[in-house]
Design goal:
The chain is an alpha+beta fold. Helix content is about 35%, strand content about 20%. The protein contains three helices and six strands. The termini are close together.
Length: about 200
């Protein structure tokens, strides 16, 4: 162990925290930010849509550009009625599971009401769709997340859960390691890395 003795009448320089402590703090802070971001993302694309009774869907084409681009994830939630200007997700053919997300540009009234839709980037209206074919109105979107969802495939829920568990575990490890290091140092003491 090294001992430093100050010359009479001088004040010794304060001990500097080791570089390892700085990098541990940076790593800990980065992990915390990533964990919060992942939890917010998981809430935005998985939890909130289910709570609202809707669904998160990936935009596959450029028909709604510049509003929504391929790879964006939109969250569509059922509404009692839809208005001109609403962006809705619907089945263009009744009974077909294919979904399209376009803007309502008009409506027909009468015995068989229908919505007229069009993609923002398209020059022509779509065929009219009945209210039963409309799945919901887009209430928000998350840019680029659809690319990630497509990359992990149908097991995206399991992948998000696994990554969240890993980040939570690593964050817990950092908290416990820091707590143990604090008990070894004692209050107000700084470790210097020397033995």
């Amino acid at each position: 162990m090294a001992t430093t003795v100050a010359a009479p009448g001088t004040t010794p320089a304060p001990e500097q925290a080791p570089t390892g402590t700085f990098w541990r703090a940076v790593l800990s802070g980065t992990t915390a930010v990533l964990l919060v971001a992942l939890l917010l993302l998981a809430a935005a694309v998985a939890v909130v849509p289910r709570v609202l009774g809707g669904a998160a869907l990936t935009v596959l084409t450029g028909s709604m550009e510049p509003t929504y681009s391929p790879g964006d994830m939109v969250v569509a939630v059922p509404q009692a009625e839809y208005e001109v200007g609403d962006v809705v997700t619907f089945q263009p053919v009744a009974g077909d599971p294919t979904l399209v997300t376009h803007r309502v540009v008009g409506a027909t009234l009468g015995a068989e009401p229908a919505y007229i839709t069009r993609g923002d980037a398209n020059g022509a209206d779509d065929d009219p769709v009945s209210p039963e074919q409309v799945m919901g109105r887009v209430v928000y979107h998350v840019p680029y997340v659809g690319h990630l969802a497509g990359a992990v495939g149908p097991n995206r829920g399991a992948v998000v859960t696994a990554v969240a568990c890993l980040l939570i575990g690593y964050g817990s490890y950092l908290v416990i390691a820091d707590s143990r290091a604090g008990r070894r140092r004692g209050p107000g003491q700084i470790t210097t890395g020397e033995s």
